[in-house]
Please model this.
Amino acid sequence: MPQTHRIERVNELIRAEISNLLLRETKDPRLSGYISINAVETSPDLRHAKVLVSCVCEEQQKKDILDALSHSSGYFRSVMAKRLKIRRMPELHFVWDSSIERGVNLVTYIDQVVGEKPAHEKK
Model:
């Protein structure tokens, strides 16, 4: 289903505001590292927003980050409701986005393949 311009604007507003909150106002030590909010996908009725999160870290840290973000979702919603001019503030659902990790793995694989020359080219 194609997104409307309004949904796209809401997605970007929420993404920017959560990034700002993580950078400047969150005191949870589990959220102190570099955490990237890659995208937000809001439902057409603005009731739910899936927030795609990534960070280069270990598996346990990923779980801790998602737990901390889920725990802080009420705080994020209340702050955003005051700052953003949105009639309905969606419920936030944080989901791990592994696209960056897949991209890094793909680049590594390509580098390995390019580095290996066929036997007939080696001389």
